[in-house]
Specification:
Blueprint: E1 9-12, H1 18-28, E2 32-38, H2 61-66, E3 70-75, H3 80-90, E4 95-98, H4 104-107, H5 112-118, E5 123-128, H6 143-150, H7 170-193, E6 197-202, H8 203-210, H9 212-221, E7 242-245, E8 251-254, H10 259-265, H11 277-282, H12 284-295, H13 300-309, E9 314-316, H14 320-324, H15 327-332, E10 335-340, E11 344-349, H16 373-380, H17 384-392, E12 396-397
Parallel strand pairs: 1-2, 1-4, 2-3, 4-5, 5-6
Antiparallel strand pairs: 3-12, 7-8, 8-9, 10-11
Organism: Verminephrobacter eiseniae (strain EF01-2)
GO molecular function: CoA-transferase activity
Keywords: Transferase
Length: 401
Amino acid sequence: MNKALEGIRILDFSHLLQGPFATQLLGDMGADVIKIERAGAGDMFRGMTFFAKWVGGSESPNFLAWNRNKRSIALNLKSRKVHAIIMEMAQTADVVVQNFRPGVLARLGYGYEDFKAVNPGIIYCSGSGYGEEGPYVERPGQDMLIQGLCGLIANTGRGDQAPVPVGAGLADQIGAMNMVYGILSALYYREKTGKGQKIEVNLLAGLLAHLNQEYVAVLNLGEDFVRPNSGIGHPGMQAPFGIYETRDGGYISIAMSPFKALYQVLQAPQLAVYDDLKTLFDQRDEVFGKVNAETRKFATQDLLARLLAVDIWCAEVKDIRRAAEDPQVMHMGMITSYEHPRGGKVRVVGPAVKMSETPATIERPAPLVGQHGREILAELGLSSQEIAALEACGDMTVDMA
């Protein structure tokens, strides 16, 4: 089967979420991703989990989520012998990805200039929290911290309660998409010119860019967003934009829709007095409460059917387990699985992008620490004796199921 990125080799020094998600996306499209992990410990995400539980008793769901379609080699990056090996690997690599704190890899001899010296066409993608210079360069750049700093958390939640972070690693995931966007652009530019380059991606810039409409509104309209007490779905929106209760304990989200159509479906003509854009904004908490009182008279599926019949933008609010069983999600085949040597059958979300000629596929499960080290070094031309010597002195570790 053809692969869009077949023949592209990536040296992946990244850890946690941002970099690993980016390289997984590229691996799904056929790139040969060599994950270079710390000897012994591996990626930091291997030691983190949710619910204080482990897949198959030992594997992190966090790591399994972002590291399929990769080969792992676990090396001591401080070793001069290892440095020479990686620079040899770089001669035939196309891309380097890393998201250590600014300057850390460069001090070990793995900065952009080091790779460029052995491969002028290399594309070096560096991810960070706040960029590689400036007053915050030494700060830890973690997802929730970035959400708070850029204004996203301040916009989320009810006005009479503390602001609420998004329930997913949004900054990291947007950062990963920006890495892929930059890498693919650089590969296309190199195809035309033969020139490599350095790409810098940071979490703060990524979230700022994705909040552009909010920034344009505040910076140009002279208004600040204020979270409504009712939980309207966006602090700049009027009612009924938000989440509403139903009789059977469920919830329905209602987005931009003609208010008249809504109160007619709800059989609540008394709401007609609010049917004006400014009124729906100025009195949005009051409107929310009155609409919510009406939606609680209906069972979830009955109300959904009534709203959809008149083309009101709505959807049921589902938790993750029920969303995985949603008929549209099942139709798209988005929940799939792979066999892991320790975790067993691991259910995962499949590739989101569909391509007619070069479809994305899952060829490899997330690797064990250094699982492919011997294989990768043998491809590089090292003898079995040289590989054994690296293992013996602790410069490389290999974990096999």
